[in-house]
Amino acid sequence: LIFSVHYVQIQTKNVTRLCHTKSLLTVNGQYPGPTLFAREGDRVVVKVTNHIPNNVTIHWHGIRQLRSAWADGPAYVTQCPIQTGQSYVYKFTIKGQRGTLWWHAHISWLRASLYGPIIIYPKKHASYPFPKPHQEVPILFGEWWNANTETVINQAMQNGGGPNVSDAYTINGLPGFLYNCSAKHTFRLKVIPAKTYLFRIINAALNDELFFAIANHTLTVVETDAVYVKPFQTNVILISPGQTTNVLFTAKSQPAPNATFLMSARPYVTGTGTFDNSTTVGILEYVSTNVRSANSSLSLFPVMKPTLPALNDTSFAANFSQKIRSLGSKKFPAAVPQKVDRQFLFTVGLGLNPCPKGQTCQGPNGTKFAASINNISFVLPTTALLQAHFFSQSKGVYTTSFPDNPPFHFNYTGAPPNNTRTLNDTRLKVVPFNSSIQLVLQDTSIVGPESHPLHLHGFNFFVVGQGVGNYNVTTDPSNFNLVDPPERNTVGVPSGGWVALRFRADNPGVWFMHCHLEVHTSWGLKMAWVVLNGNGKSQSLPPPPKDLPSC
Ligand code: C2O
């Protein structure tokens, strides 16, 4: 067992982008934050100290946290936040996972600047199931606001309207030269002809699914959400907030002299309302080409631009997700639950609630935007759910009455129903240890069909089916892929469609599930599962660490 100990200081730092300087929340003064390197089997210990005025927590997105739910990180779910001047030590062991994941703040919208990669190498002497790359390069997408994050949240929450859209998308914190004032804030990557690279791509954007491509080059997808997949080639990838995708990239053996290849990312948008359709670019160039300074005019050189799908290309999205299959090899089998103990159908979507007295709301017709799962807009408590559960103190904190099915016919019809209201409550769903769960997520059309990247903490699930329109409980299961479905922690519920997931509830604790579009999470598109202890110590959650923050 290897211990890696990290000290993390959350502090403010002045950062300039788009000619705007603002005081940014950072980890150790870095934006984006530092990479957490580990190896499968490692014990990871991270001491997080809060030096900012805000409460904060850190979540290790995609880490299974087997028997270590106390280290998962979502505020008011598994822990109370770390207050100013306080510390908390996150301790967990990485079991049965290797690949790319990421960490981010998990309170309010602080993940806007508090995020970074987690790179888990295979065990010593173990290798990748693909040729060893010459070099590995993390590529993180993010969003930059000139305004304060607080102002952005208030717009979405207090005014009840859509959030202010970000001023730029970024690649590794850099907007790229297409944006105002950003020529020197452009990500540049130099590659050697004929060499193969592993790009570890992470979508840390707050509110946008993104297309990504590199001009004149194909990408070979080899891993999604830290699970190996059957390799496939594509010109473009689609990646939702929360997801990670590893691709192999082989540099041309004889690139055109001086050619510059742009890498671009731009949103995939299926909803209505205001959004930013701008493009972040980075520059890929060959070491053989003339070295030019960061400020030299690009127009002197041939610049190849990639073509990205249309903003709302739902058929690209459907085809792309169909191509992702678990590797399912002897060494890396796909352990898909073949039979199911518990079945659930959850609707996910937006709603419109009346504007509270004394407020002016900016939603359609003066309403306030809401979002829900099975019509419940989840309300976080002011204490932590996991503690309440562990110490049997749920009274006044939550109930266990989360509905197994939509409360009324509430699924995708293509037209909004009359009742668009949601119910605000804190309801959890309890399942026994080791039960195998089938969960169908159905997009609604209350405000309009929209794709929702749903993320489940504490588990990987298998995406056994997907489709457009309404899920059909009698005919659709016969088409489920129970052989090599993708295994992930975040899945895009298709716009006006559904996905069917299966997972084994083998991890006791309280586990958050939510849309990874931050604005939808804030509007209530979230809930939590309680997975009970099994028999004996090995199937039970140990008591909390002594330094677990209190509220
Ligand atoms: Cu990446 Cu609950 O989050």
TrEMBL record:
Localization in the cell: Secreted, Extracellular space, Apoplast
Cofactor binding mode and count: Binds 4 Cu cations per monomer.
Cofactors required: Cu cation
GO BP, one annotated term: lignin catabolic process
CDD domains, A to Z: CuRO_1_LCC_plant (cd13849), CuRO_2_LCC_plant (cd13875), CuRO_3_LCC_plant (cd13897)
Domain Plastocyanin-like, residue spans: 10-124, 136-287, 402-533
EC number: 1.10.3.2
InterPro entries: Cu-oxidase-like_N (IPR011707), Cu-oxidase_2nd (IPR001117), Cu-oxidase_C (IPR011706), Cu-oxidase_fam (IPR045087), Cu_oxidase_CS (IPR033138), Cu_oxidase_Cu_BS (IPR002355), Cupredoxin (IPR008972), CuRO_1_LCC (IPR034288)
GO molecular function, one term: hydroquinone:oxygen oxidoreductase activity
Pfam families: Cu-oxidase, Cu-oxidase_2, Cu-oxidase_3
Enzyme class: oxidoreductase
Primary localisation category: secreted
Family listed: Belongs to the multicopper oxidase family.
Job of this protein: Lignin degradation and detoxification of lignin-derived products.
Protein name from the UniProt record: Laccase
Organism phylogeny: Eukaryota, Viridiplantae, Streptophyta, Embryophyta, Tracheophyta
